[in-house]
Structure formats: structure tokens, C-alpha cells
Amino acid sequence: MATLRFQALKDASRRKPIHFEETDRKSILFGSNVFNEKAMKQYLTSDALKGVKGAIQFGTKIERKLADYIAMGMKEWALSKGVTHYTHWFQPLTGATAEKHDAFFETSYDGSDPVEKFGGGQLVQQEPDASSFPNGGIRNTFEARGYTAWDPTSPAFIYGTTLCIPTVFISYTGEALDNKIPLLRALSAMDDAATEVCKYFDKNVKKVTATLGWEQEYFLIDRSLANSRPDIVMTGRTLLGHTSAKGQQLDDHYFGSIPSRALMYMRDLEQECMLLGIPVKTRHNEVAPNQFELAPIFEETNLAVDHNCLLMDIMEKVAERHHFKVLLHEKPFKGVNGSGKHNNWSLATDTGVNLLSPSKTPMSNLQFLTFFINTIKAVNDYESLMRAAIATASNDHRLGANEAPPAIISVFIGEQLTKVLAELEGVTSGKLSPEEKTDLKLNVVGKIPDVLLDNTDRNRTSPFAFTGNKFEFRAVGSSANCSNAMTTLNTIVAKQLKDFKIEVDALIDQKGLKKDEAIFNVLREYIKLSKKILFEGDGYSEAWEIEAAKRGLSNFKTTPEALKARASKQALDLFSEMGVMNHVEVEARYEIELEEYVKKIQIEGRVLGDISKNHVIPTAIRYQNTLIENVRGLKEIFGTEFETIAKEQILLIKEISLHIEGINSKVEEMTNERKKANNLTNAQSMAEAYCNNVKPYFEVIRNHCDRLELLVDDQIWTLTKYRELLLTK
Ligand code: ADP
Ligand code: MG
């Protein structure tokens, strides 16, 4: 009987690339399934269009009557494209996206008057029966329900035959039940704080938008091969498997030519992205075999987050057509690089200025320095909160695991800007002499664009790096919804800018300093206060761990430890002061994330127990029986001499028994630890118990299994091996 492994290998070997032809130029396809400005102009009255634009730009409320008109136009547009259903599309705290489809089609009870219906009511608000989404105690499941409400800042789109309306998910008491509301609130806090600060430099600035350009890494594995591994199917990663003789050591995959099956997949995926208005731009191979990356042109943060959520969803759907499985897990394979999702972040004004890009004049460079230094100070003050924002069970495999950014948050700015900060630090306190001012403007601030031109130094080991005109938050996990990281980053920087404004104004009003003197003075203090976060060296080195500990930086290697900062007093104060989340909302997220951590480890423990007992041990025993048979035969032929002749086989039989015993006893111990952990009632202690008492067994059990994989006859091994999963083209 062929095992699933051999059937899958046979299937995989027969696969040809699914040919994919682009039909139109990308510029023509782009956004054609999005209810964007072009579609709105065609389908909406001018009043309705104005209403939507006002809501997008200034957050003005859309009246019900107007909503009816907008819905009508949206419905006509959707029907013209063959759409039959609509859904409110939202991001509950599961990390995934959720949808509930309703047909436009309606008829009266006796079947007469069939009609396609969709009004302002259905557009603006819906009540999904969502009582089983995680809510961390906010919402008593039988007491009140949440509802979804349209987010006009993210346009409706068509996927398949469904009109998807991006929405927020909120409880009747007004608490955010999703990832989007806190993000929108953080972006609005950022707009307020940054616009105020911009006014020091340019009175015309009315709005500041945070921008995000993510880079999505992923693995593509043949679907049959992936499905032949119960661990991949159930946990998204391999829980065991001996590393393949050839991995990534030759570096031959990185930026190499893309295998044709994968290329066809990417082209198909990019076409879907184009239709949905996701501006994908870059595709290339990554470091590990079968690992790739896709990156779009950056966008306004809320839209970029929605687009990334949507992308993760369609990646899997398109993969089905190409007989691939997409692995978004941060560490699907031991011994080869994991996947991340770099979050490139910056701030843009409505006057078209990138606030993190140095430019020609000293004044606008002072503006650049202001935003640059305030960002550094914010990360300095809230480093542990930044770590908490990216903490998940799967990201723990990357952070601090000697490849991805370490679990210590630090900021890399490069040699030239380090020098600039050192010079600024020497600025005289209080009023500046005219010479000093001129010198600062001409020789320090004025020279920044020149020094940055040859700023080629890039530090790949830094979790938060300045890369010329943006910061790059590299520690975000590949499977994460970016909103958690973006809500945190934008909130801390907004808070910092708010404080900065207060301090500068005080120096101007109370000490009589000129505006630029006041700014220089405050920035100088910030540079002094933010020293501990700046690090230019090798983030993977042990020396940095020691140094970081001396500096008092946190170094949380596991999620339960890292998450404590999520609901610390500092975090509660921050989020409530900035109007991003109240205490209940923050604490609910903290609980949900702990629960999610527990569930992930719990499932992995169960799956590992099952496969090691149901796959590995039976196969090992079969092979051992063959060896025993062999030894028996040798004894028959060679009599007393057999002991020398069958020596190796006998050792092998013993070794197999040792590993079998190891698996059995460790699985039993692990199960007992799980039981103990399950009896704990406090979420933090339960997560810690899973982390410290259950998870350590994974490595031990795996080692026994991986040894057996090397010992047992390849012909009877049931689990698809690393080389087969990773090197099949
Ligand atoms: P890499 O980091 O792989 O070397 P780049 O430095 O070119 O690549 O970064 C590319 C990413 O940075 C893209 O996703 C791009 O959209 C994003 N990006 C560029 N400028 C900005 C900006 N001002 N704001 C946000 N993201 C940006
Ligand atoms: Mg990058």
C-alpha cells in the first residue's frame, strides 16, 4: 500500500506549471474591481461623491439618506460586474479576516417581485452573528452582540461574485472588537499631533498621513506534499523532520531565477492584486529554498493593512489553482530561514512632503530631524511595547533565533546620521549665538541630504532601521495582521510629537526662545535621553545581548513574557491618553493574545504527540522487526559467529528501542504538563506554563523522531521529508 508520502511525491512529480496569460496591461487592470474614485464618478451623484470624499478626508459623518444613494450606486456598479452577494468584510481579533455573505436577491414571501436589493442600511451597518469571535471578556456572548459599520476610508471591492465592504467591528457599548478601530484611532491621533508639529515649518499643512509599505515573505510548497504532512495541515509548520543535506547553504536560491511553476503562480496572483487595486511591484526569491517575497508600492496605512489582509487571503486561493500551499508561518522549517513582514513606515503631508526624507533647505531638514529624532525617542521610551506588538507563538521562532531581528528592540540609523546627532548634542542650552545658528544650519542640518546620498550602509540585523527616507520595522511576523504593529508605532510617535510640541511651546512662551532655538534645544535633550536605543552593531551577537542588558533594554524571548508590557500601566496610560483604546479594550487584547498563545502551543503539542506515536513509532517498529528478522536469519546461517556478523544490526535495534522509549515517555510527560497547565485559571500563568513546561518537550521529542528518520529505511518512512518539501520545483 502506497503511503500518503509516496502518493504525494508521485503527484508532485507530474505537476507542470499552470500556464497563465496576462490579458491586459497592468495599468488598465489596476483597480477595476474596486469602487474607487473612477467608479464612483460614474455611479454616484455629485452629492453622494462629495459625501464619501468628505468622510475619507475629514471623517465627516455620512447621513442615512446619502448612504441610500451611495448604496444604490454601489449596487449598480457591482451588478454590472456580475456580482450576486455582498458582505461586510472585517478583521476580528483572530488575526484573520471575516465575512458573511448575503445575496442581493430578495423576493416577497410568495415568491413574487423578485428584485436585487441593497440600501444604505445594509451598506452602513450589519449585525453578524459573531458571538463566537474572541472578545477577551468585552462582550458577554449571550448579552450583547457586536455590529459592523462601514469604513469609507477603505474602498469596497469585488472578489469573485461578492461585493466586499470594509468595515469596523464594534460592540454595542462602543468598544472596538477588531484590529481596525484602534488603528484608525491611532492614525487620527498621529494626524493631529504631526500636523501641529508641521505647522512650525509650514503653515499650509492640514493633514499628515502615516504610510506603510509591507514586504510579505512566504513559502510555496506543492499542495500534495504539504497535505501529506499532518503538522503542516494543522499547525502551518513542520514539527519534525530532519534537515535536508542541501538547504540554503549555497545561497543559490536568493534572487536566483524564479522556478517556472512559482512564476506562473506569482503572475496569476499579481493579476488578482491588480484587479483589487493592490499595487504590487516587486517579486523575488528569498534566502530559503521555495521562499519568496512580494512587495507593493506603499500606501496610506489603513488601506495598506487592508490590502495585506486581503493579499494573505487571495494568496491561498490562487495557490489552490496552481496546486501549491502557501505557508505564511514565521518558521515553517527548522534549519532554514523563517519569514517576516517588514513594515516600511513614514509620514506624508497633504502638501506632498515625506517627513522622514531630508531635502534641500535647512528649514525642511530641521523638520526632517524633528520627526526623525521624535521617532527614535518614542521607540526608546516604548521599546517593550513595540516588542509586545509583534509577540506571537509563531514569531517567537524568529525573534532571537539568530537569523531574524533579535528580541531586543533597537534603532539603527547609520554612520552619517549618528554623526549628525552627535553634533546636535553639542548645541548650547538656551539662546544660540548667531554664529552657532549659521553653523548648525549650514554645516550640520544643511549637509544631511549630501551625507545621505552615499548612505549605503544597511544593517540587516536591526529590528527597526532607518533606510534613507523611512523606518523599517523588521520584526513583524509574516503571518501577522500589520495593524497591531502599526497601531502601536503610530500611537507612540503621536504621543511623542504631542509632548514635543508642549515642550517647544513652553520654551518659546516662557523662556523667550526663537522657534528654531527651542526646537534645537528640545531635540538635543531627546538625543541625550535616547542613547540606549541606538545600536549600529551586529544584532545577532551575544555581545549585544550583554550590552543591551547593561543599557536596561528588554530582551523578551517568549510571548508570555513580552505580552506583559501590553497591559502595563505605561501602555494603559498611553492608549487612553491618545484616545486609541480604553483600559477595557487594551486588557481584552492582552487576554486574547495570551489565550491564542496557549491554543497554538496546545495544538502543536497534541499534533506532535499524535504524529510521533501514530507515524514515527509504528514505522520504527516495522523497520526494527525487519532487522530482527535479519538477525534471526544470520543466526540460523552463522550459528555462534552471528554476534560479530550482526553486530551493527543489533546496535541499531537497540538504538531504535531507545528512541521509541524516549518518544513514549516524553509524550506522556508533556501530556501531564498540559493537564497541569489547563487547570490554571489565570491567563498569564497558563501561557507561562505552556511556554516553560510544555513547549520544551517539543525539541526533545523532535530529536528522537529526527534520529529515527535517519535510521529507518526510506522506503517505509511515511512522513514527507524536508528535501522533498523544500527542493521540489
Ligand atoms: P528592501 O527593504 O527589500 O531593500 P526597499 O528598501 O526598496 O526594499 O523597500 C521597499 C519597501 O519600502 C516597499 O514596500 C515600499 O513600498 C516601501 N516604501 C518606500 N517608501 C516608503 C514610504 N515613504 N513610506 C512607507 N513605505 C515606503
Ligand atoms: Mg525591507
UniProtKB/TrEMBL annotation:
GO annotation (BP), single: glutamine biosynthetic process
SUPFAM superfamilies hit by this protein: Glutamine synthetase/guanido kinase
Matches recorded under InterPro entries: Gln-synt_C, Gln_synt_N, Gln_synth/guanido_kin_cat_dom, Gln_synth_cat_dom, Gln_synth_gly_rich_site, GS_Type-3, GSIII_N
Entry-linked Pfam families: Gln-synt_C (PF00120), Gln-synt_C-ter (PF18318), GSIII_N (PF12437)
GO molecular function, one term: glutamine synthetase activity
Coiled-coil stretches noted in the UniProt entry, renumbered to this chain: 653-683
Residue ranges annotated for the GS beta-grasp domain, each copy included: 84-174
Domain GS catalytic: 179-616
Protein's name according to its UniProt entry: Glutamine synthetase type III
Annotated organism of origin: Flavobacterium luteum
Classification lineage: Bacteria, Pseudomonadati, Bacteroidota, Flavobacteriia, Flavobacteriales
